[in-house]
């Protein structure tokens, strides 16, 4: 018996719909499997990245420990700190499974300690004069010392001219208050009135913020810091001092005072000699350990401030992860 054309057409349409549905289901299943596989791969990569990040951080802490050991050993063998010693040398990167690690040490007492500007709640005249000279040597306005003093001192009286206390900072957006205490980090300078990122970047290699009064190590201080120490000492003379000490580091503070470029200015004003002698040293107690680690795609950079006491014992005072 012949199948009616209408029924045959309906059957074909139903078969076509079933085929389309089957293809759709297959496509959905394929998409789901593909998505699951992709998500699984993403999860695997994410887990691997997290593991790499953790491993890199642990390696960075190991570099930090290495830095401590180097500083401890240095103190046992030498009471003078200069840039010819092992701690000051830049070792080559060490290859490890999946990446590399490196580290180097800087002497923070080769810099000007911003917290020395205020002593017992009042400005320290010799240190204020030094900071003014540092600003001048770097081509910056020496009056910028005023808001820094206000940031550090305990009162709310703005200095004139150029000072700033809460009355200024609370008018900013967002508002905040003057710290009125010693700085924890030199990066606080970015919060001080008049200090733009450009100005901070100019100053950053030559400043620090340490919790105790510190002497400047004339064996490690860069030329602008040496020039800051002596009124009238120019950058060219300071650069010559840096070159000469590279051959023969100073064994005592007196060796620095005897340098002709320094003597020329001290002879003009003998009263400067005891002031300068009280500000300099040839040994250091504060250092900065830089740690850099690469594992896979992970990158970790740590900056660790270390205090070393006269016996050689070290304490990690502050560690921060840097970009």
What does this molecule look like?
The chain is α+β, with helices and mostly antiparallel strands. The protein has a domain of 83 residues: Orthogonal Bundle (Ribonucleotide Reductase Protein R1, domain 1), CATH 1.10.40. The chain is built from ten helices and eleven strands. Strand 4 and strand 5 form a beta hairpin. The longest helix is centred in the N-terminal third of the chain and has 73 residues. The mean pLDDT is 90.
Write the layout of secondary structure elements.
Blueprint: H1 5-77, E1 94-96, E2 99-107, E3 112-113, E4 118-119, E5 122-123, H2 125-137, H3 145-152, H4 166-169, H5 197-203, E6 207-208, E7 216-217, H6 223-229, H7 235-247, H8 253-257, H9 260-266, H10 272-277, E8 280-281, E9 286-295, E10 298-308, E11 314-321
Parallel strand pairs: 3-6, 7-8
Antiparallel strand pairs: 1-2, 2-9, 4-5, 9-10, 10-11
Helix pairs in contact: 2-6, 6-7
């Amino acid at each position: 018996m012949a199948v009616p054309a209408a029924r045959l057409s309906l059957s074909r349409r139903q078969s076509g719909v079933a085929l389309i549905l089957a293809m759709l289901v297959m496509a959905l299943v394929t998409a789901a499997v593909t998505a699951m596989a992709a998500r699984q791969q993403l999860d695997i990569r994410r887990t691997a990245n997290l593991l790499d990040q953790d491993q890199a951080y642990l390696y960075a802490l190991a570099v930090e420990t290495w830095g401590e050991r180097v500083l401890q050993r240095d103190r046992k063998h030498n009471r003078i700190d200069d840039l010819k010693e092992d701690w000051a040398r830049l070792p080559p990167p060490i290859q490890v499974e999946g990446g590399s690690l490196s580290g180097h040490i800087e002497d923070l007492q080769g810099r000007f300690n911003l917290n020395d500007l205020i002593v017992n709640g009042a400005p320290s005249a010799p240190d204020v004069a030094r900071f003014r000279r540092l600003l001048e040597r770097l081509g910056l306005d020496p009056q910028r010392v005023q808001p820094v003093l206000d940031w550090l001192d305990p009162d709310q009286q703005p200095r004139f001219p150029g000072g700033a206390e809460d009355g200024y900072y609370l008018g900013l957006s967002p508002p905040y208050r003057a710290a009125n205490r010693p700085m924890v980090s030199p990066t606080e300078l970015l919060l001080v009135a008049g200090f733009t990122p450009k100005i901070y970047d100019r100053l950053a290699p030559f400043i620090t913020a340490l919790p105790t009064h510190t002497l400047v190590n004339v064996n490690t201080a860069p030329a602008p810091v040496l020039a800051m120490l002596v009124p009238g000492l120019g950058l060219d003379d300071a650069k010559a001092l840096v070159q000469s000490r590279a051959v023969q580091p100073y064994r005592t503070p007196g060796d620095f005072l005897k340098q002709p470029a320094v003597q020329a200015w001290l002879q003009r004003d003998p009263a400067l000699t005891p002031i300068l002698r009280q500000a300099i040293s040839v040994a250091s107690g504060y250092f900065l350990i830089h740690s850099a680690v690469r594992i896979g795609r992970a990158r970790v950079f740590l900056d660790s401030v270390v205090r070393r006491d006269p016996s050689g014992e070290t304490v990690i005072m502050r560690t921060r992860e840097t970009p």
